[in-house]
Fold this protein.
Amino acid sequence: MSQASTQSRPTKLPKHINYNGKFILLKYHMMLTGSGKHPGNSLAALQEVIDGEVAVIEFDVNYLADNEFGFIHDGTLQRETTGLGEVRKLDGAAFKALSYKHSSEPLCTLSDATKLLKSINFPVKLQVDFKEKTPIDDAQATVFLKAIESLRENDNITIVVGCLADWNLRTLRRLDDELNIGVDFAFHLDVPTADELVRLPTRVGAYGYLDDHMLAARKLQSPESYLRDRTEVLLNLVPNAYEFYLHKDFVARAIQDGFNPVEFTHTYLPDSFVDVWTIDYSSGDHNSASEAMFQVALDAGADQITTNTALQWAEVYS
């Protein structure tokens, strides 16, 4: 493998890496490329990935106060922006008056992004990461579906709506049975990690996984059997899902316990498409750990890998 760097850039950004003859798509998480030029979820970042004609773009949306949607990961402003308080209390104008933290780049709304996206003239998959966790009603769901309607009219764009809150995905699907859904079951089954994010479930079960299900209460079968049963159930959270997102640490831990959730998903649902998230290239002392995790995802059979550093991974695997 070559040493990753950011000194030279191709005209077009990498769409995938070739691993053992299989093309694994690179998903540009929050539209970040690894160039370090722009903050995530910003309009400038979107312009960069559009100019680079990438294959998969992902951005986060949260409700604003006026039926608009802001490009921001959290439901509060302070971690990512120059503002404070709840995102939903701002209208579009107030939201765009703020900047991304450590940047002069103003915050971006879905309406702003749509002006760029709907004119795309190359094939791209667009994952809209719908961050709303509170159960939405039909009226709220309709507002969201209306907001992405014009994007779905572009034949070059394949829209996939992902959300950790599977209950909201089911509401959206009931209103629109043609909507492509991406399922992430980390709110039901995950692993404890050392990062600062609050994870659900909060209880560590008998097998060492975050899991509030009765099956996790006592260790009455092998870890492989437990994981097989739980994964089978969770793959059916939303019928006919377009793709599945598996947390990288869950994949690595499950494989250690003798169960490959990527392989199982492909076998259980033969037409399934599996993304492993989020694996970033790290230089210096942590480089070997990040490369090892990326290798786990590749060897597990991932179809797509979510990353903030697609440029670096493409160079490592060139």
Observations:
- The longest helix spans residues 287-300.
